[in-house]
Amino acid sequence: MTRRVSLRARLTLVILPPVLGVALIAGLWQLNGARETADGVFNKSMLSAAVAVANDVAISGGDALSPRTRDILSSTSGGQVFYHVFAPDGVIVAGYATPPVGIPRTGEESAEPTFFRAAYLGRDVSGVRLQTRTQIEGFTGLFTTTVWQDSAVREAFVRDLMMRSLVVSMSILVALALIVWFGVRIGLRPLLDLEQAIAQRSSGDLSPIKRAVPAETEGIVATLNSLFDQVSRSMAAQSEFIANAAHQLRNPIAGVLALAESVVSARTDEQVRERSRDLLDAAQKTADLSSRLLMLERAQSLSQATAFTKLDLQSSLGNWLEADKRFGPDGIALHLDLGEQPANVMADPVMLREAIVNLLDNACSHGGPDLSEIRVSVRSGKTEHVIAVADNGRGIPVQDMERAMIRFVQLNDAGSTGLGLSIVRAIVEGHNGRISLADNDGGLAVQVTLPAAA
């Protein structure tokens, strides 16, 4: 079973990792900044100490440093500072005898101080070398003053800066995590309200949700309301269908029962045979009505979600109509005009064939005694194709054409089921098409328009 993750946890996981990534980048940037800051602070301290030592050595001839300079050397940036001063001939004038190892050499007189990292008695040190032209005890030349300090002091300063930055950053991240966690919880309250609104709906109450919702959920609410509307209309249609079916089947079934009783009560073989034929005819009509009712229900269940297949109208219509034995030299003439351009549609072949057969049945059953021909044609288009079925029968009055497609409506034949055109209409609309009726010089022309296949 797939473990479900709450929306709040998802949003927290989506928000916090990028923030942590930014915090990591900011931390690295702060580390680099802390090192640059430490280098700047300590280099200035070293340079100040070197200048102070050089001045005191020049004044005292290397014998003593002033108290102020000693204070600088003992507490500069929180750690002791070492120094020595060399004369031009390499003789030490003042300070510690052992210099750091690895100090870069300039080779020439340089007015700019040289900052370095070296080793002193096995420890890493950082310092500055300063060359000044000075006169000490009558000797004039280029004196070199070197000042250095244990690098651990500098690293401790960097760590202190980083710890302060880390504490501030972690505090901000913790606060942000709490804000995100509880903020998302507060932000999701409209969804919880929406859940309650949906939970209140039932099969007896599918009214649309009208409460205010966040803009991000307006699409969900609109889809739900559309679904509620579709389900409501579907339930209403099914209820109406069941009521109409029960009403339409009541009389035929009652007739079948009455005829069955008359067969049982018949006194002669002739009466039995006659009443049996009537019973068989009534049963066939009842079965036909039931079959058409089921076909209507199936047609109304068609939708774009149905797995349609690509269908060639020309070849399919040709095969369907040529197999119909009702049309021939001695009966009604059937004329086919299937066109030359391809006409492909996405359709359910069984249901589309049922629609065409129902149109032919309708023409043959209600065309009247003057019906002599039926024409079936196909017109191809870029976005839609048209199937036309026209006859020269008695037709339907223009004012009754819309009513003719309503189920159970019988215009001029009380013996019909009144379902033929309504089944065709349901099938066509289930294919996202449309149907229209028109006068055909006294006869009836039915036009079915279907979307062209991509």
From TrEMBL:
- Residues covered by the Histidine kinase domain: 244-454
Reaction(s) catalyzed by this protein?
A: ATP + protein L-histidine = ADP + protein N-phospho-L-histidine
Molecular-function annotations in GO: kinase activity
Subcellular location, in the record's words?
Membrane
Under the heading Gene3D superfamilies, the entry gives: 1.10.287.130, Histidine kinase-like ATPase, C-terminal domain (3.30.565.10)
Q: Kindly state which keywords UniProt assigns to this record, in alphabetical order.
A: Kinase, Membrane, Phosphoprotein, Transferase, Transmembrane, Transmembrane helix, Two-component regulatory system
Give any Pfam family that matches: HisKA
Q: What is its EC number?
A: 2.7.13.3
Q: Which residues form a coiled coil?
A: none
Q: What is its main location?
A: membrane
Enzyme class label? transferase
**In which domain of life is the source organism classified?**
Bacteria
Which residue numbers delimit the HAMP domain?
A: 185-236
Record field: transmembrane: 161-184
In Swiss-Prot or TrEMBL terms, this protein is called histidine kinase
Q: Report the source organism.
A: Thalassococcus lentus
